[in-house]
Structure formats: C-alpha cells, structure tokens
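Quick note —
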Amino acid sequence: MSSEMREKCGVFGVFNHPQAADLTYYGLHALQHRGQESAGIVASDGKTFRHHRGMGLVTQVFSRDILDGLSGNMAIGHVRYSTSGQSLLENAQPLVFKYSEGDLAVAHNGNLVNARVERDVLQQQGSIFQTTTDTEIIAHLIARSSKKHFAKAAPDTLKRLDGSFALLIMTEKQMLIALDRHGLRPLSLGKIGDAVVAASETCALNAVDAKFWRDVEPGEWLLIDENGVQTGRFAPKSEQSLCSFEFVYFARPDSIIHGRSVLEIRKELGQILAKEHPIDADVVIAVPDSSIPAAIGYAAQSGIPYEIGLIKNPYVGRSFIEPTQELRELAVRLKLSAVEGILNGKKVVLIDDSIVRGTTSKRIVQLLRQAGAKEIHVRISSPMVRNPCFYGVDMPTKEELFANKHEQEQEMGRSIGADTLAFLSTDGLLKAVDVNLAETSNRCIACFSGAYPTKLYLE
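Predicted structure written out below.
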C-alpha cells in the first residue's frame, strides 16, 4: 500500500456540444491527478450509448480512433483511484446499465458511508451486483425507485445516499448533476456557449476553455435536457463540509474552489507554518510537486532562500503499485533524487504537505542525508493526520497512521531521522482556508480532529 493519501477520482461531463467526447477526454486529462488506475467515457447522440473504459492513464486508455467512435453531443467521464472496490476493469467508471427506462451511466467521485446497508437491502430485494463499487448501488436504487421516470427517480434516489458524492448520471437524453448534502467533494459548472460542463475542479474547465458558471451547492441536483436546466434540492441547505485536504494536497494548484485559489492558500499555509515553527536554516526545499507552494510561502515568511533540492522523475509510476516493500523503496529512489550541490553542508528545511504512514518521509530524509545535508528540519503544512477518512480518500487504519504511533513531535522526528519535526496547527489550517474559527463546520477536518460530519455506519 502507498504511504501517501490518494483521492478517489474525478468526474467530467458535457451536455449539448458536438464534440462532447473530445472535450471530456481533455477534461479528464486535466483531472488525471485525482486518479490514475482507470479512465472511461460514455457518450450519447440522444438515441444510443457509446462507451469505452480501460485500465491506466487517460492517454493510455483512449486513442484517436476510439474517441472518433464516441459520437454524440453529451458525454460523462471518470478517472479512478480505487478506495471502494478493487482495482479491476469491471469497477472502472462510468458504470453503464440497462433498465426499464433504457440506458443509464453513472460517474461518482466519493464514498457512500451507508453503502453496506443499502447493498444488503437491495440484495434481499433481488438485485444482482456486477461490481464491488458503491457506485453501482446508485443505479440499482434508481431502477427500483417508485418514481416512474428518470427525471423524478434520480433526484428521489439521492435522498437515500449518505456520505460523499460528486455525481454525474446520464441517460440517452438527460444528464443529472448532484453533490452530496455535506458538499464533501468539489464540483463546478461551466459553459461553452450553450453547452453545460461539469467538472470536479475548475482546472478541467480551463482545459476545455469553458467559462466558469458556479459551484454546485451541497444537497443540490441539476437535470439538463432539451428543455434546459432544472434545479432542485434533495436535502436542506446547510453548512458546507468540504474536505480540507482539497486545499492542502488533492486539488491542482491552478484550481479555484469556492472562490479561493488553491495555489494562494497553499502559499499561506507555508507562511503560517513559518510563523508557528521558525528555525535557523540555510535553505528551504519542497517535496515535489504538491508541497512547492507551501515551501515558497515558508521561504517568503522566514527569509530563508527557497531552492530546488529534490527532483521528481515524471516518468516513474507511483510507488504504491510495487508488490514488495523493497521494490517500493527502490521506486521512491527512482521517483525522487536529491541535488547535492544545493544540500551539501546545509541546514535544510524540508516542507511536505502531510505525513500518513511516515515511511516516505523517512526515505526522503535519508536521501537528503546522503546528499550531505548538515541538518534536516521537517515542516508539515497540515495538522497531524490521526483519523481515517470514510469519504473517498485512501487512508490507513487509525492504528497504522504515523501520528498515532508516537506521543510527541520530538519522538516522531527521530523516527524519520530528522533533527526536528513540526506540524501546522488546526487553527493555522482553518485560518488559511478562510474559516471562522468559531464555525469550523464548513470544512471537514475529521482526519485531524475525529469529528465526522456524517454517521459512519461502522460495525
């Protein structure tokens, strides 16, 4: 397993554009950071579904010939990293089904915390599941809804779902866009002329030259068809509980979430970290790529020069796919290399966005030592991760988490070989993401605090 956290997936959809599949391809390419295991696109010309899914990156799954075969003026797409269900082609999305109303395609970013309960009920009613994902539950609920048509059955089904979901559901002629009642995952809307575009992040809207329209609200659904856009709610409007790690790590830095620049927030996280945990050092470096903005912020606030001390090889696969611990360690060496000319004889501040298991941090500190670093002071631009996530983020059990294996930061620092180690405070995180500290419910910080915004349905 990886020592890093992985976001579950990204979704992208287009309605009323003659090149819907091509636009979806480019949108998924922009969302590739949210999932690298599989990719898929379903397109419709108003009468027939055409779809293709495959294991691997977007560029590996789709060719020009395949895209040419996905004709239609509407499409939804998905990139996946599995947290619920195995990494198999059968679990790749969008999932496609046939039911009494016709064809149905579902693309889902998130995790349903009541999936086991709903699956048990559906199986008792005779439903036969083809995949191990919680996403398939949504299709079965729509098919078994007491509401006669998709336009009423889909919104009604949303009331039964609990947990996190940014959701795109498509029939031959209609598209439903919905966000869970807590707003745990991001979901934005854009327009290209008369075409409507939906994407997990605004960076994907930019990739297809779509003009940002607005964010989907928690508990809201939008139904788009030839008659235009209908909106409604399946849950009362309440406080947003967007995952705070979208700002820390998951989202691409050029995305805008709820009007806030992810890049600027990450710089501010670094600035606050420098105020909370200053150190005498010669150079500030980052673990590339997600920690670079925080390192720039730390350097600007502290006055310590920022340098490129670690180089990332963009052509090396992620270390979590290696089958043994020894091969995973070798993969880290292939993925990162230290710049001896920057580090030799220097007191180094190493900025990273998080520590999950601690194994990657330990290997990186070893790389810096071998490059001649005199002192290594690790600074983390998020609080200690002490609790697992149940909303679509791949995270270890509570017992496996690094912060729960050690009582003090000093002991943690020694365990990874650093001279010192310090984490951003929760108040510092909330300040950077513009949250009133007396009203923290509009950001999910459960992995730090243990206060989950939903019921967990744990056995």
